[in-house]
Amino acid sequence: MTTNDGKQRIATLVAPDIYCLEIPTPFDVGAVNVYLLKGERLTLVDVGPSTDDAWAALTNGLESIGVSVEDIEQVILTHHHVDHCGQLEKVRELSGAKTFAHPQATPYVQQDEQFMTFHDQFFEELYIQSGVPEKKMVIISKFHKLMKTFSAPSQIDFHLKHEQKVPYLEDWQVLYTPGHSQSHLSLYRAKDQVMIGGDHIIKRISSNAFIEPPRNRTSTRPLTLIQYRTALQMCADMEIKQVLSGHGEPVYNHRELILARLQKNWERTDTLRRLLADGEKTAFELNALLFPGLYQKELPLTLSETLGHIDLLMILHQIEVREQDRVLYYHL
């Protein structure tokens, strides 16, 4: 069977009792990997975005191994981004499956209006502090359009926490791996050293440590790049033979890849420090210098990366900041 893009979708056995379904997305990152785990309960890890092609790929992939959507008994979300959770509600409606995720995925998956108002206020203030021009503030409303276009509101039934066993999959352990998102979880099976890594560890691209609002209005902004580096270092210390990623092929050399990513972080931090050598700059100005060919198109992504490196330098007391008219200016 084929989807609208003309490609045949067949689930691939990638480890004992684990099938990978490649689901197309309309995003630059390309296809997303969804995993079917056969255990005490038939479990789907992630579901793909809400598009006709994604739904066809999911149903056809399941059918290729003799399974239907109606057979799914539970869903685990690695995180709340729409390419991973968008068609959750459709799966739930057909199967009655319960959903497990990190608590911070809940307001995004539910598209909670009160939280989204807080979300918008947080980013408006963040972008003002970063020196983002007013005409570019439209990126805040674009986020809402993205969510509503590629994700239907749904529900999280149960929350997962770090190092607990996965319900009804006793061989699997939950790992909290924040950075790419505040809700990011990975799953680890010690007996064969397999990790389902979502977007935490991807072979061909370094995951962006997206800036997100804190849990509530009284908390400070999460230092997402610091979180990401810490979670990577945790995984580097683990015995992992295979990382089944959210995008692309499996990773078999996780320590080597992680060390290369961490080193790349420091190189970019050094670049940012050099850019400040000739005078103070806003985060937006630094962002344009760090990513001259990309920042106009991918401002939320590149600004998150820039702010992450500013956070690193601030923690190391290598740069200072002054505020003027709500805008933050950084200098050596």
From TrEMBL:
It catalyses: 3',5'-cyclic UMP + H2O = UMP + H(+); 3',5'-cyclic CMP + H2O = CMP + H(+). SMART domains: Lactamase_B (SM00849). Residues 31-247 form the Metallo-beta-lactamase domain. PANTHER family: ENDORIBONUCLEASE LACTB2, METALLO-BETA-LACTAMASE SUPERFAMILY POTEIN. Counteracts the endogenous Pycsar antiviral defense system. Phosphodiesterase that enables metal-dependent hydrolysis of host cyclic nucleotide Pycsar defense signals such as cCMP and cUMP. This is Metallo-beta-lactamase domain-containing protein.
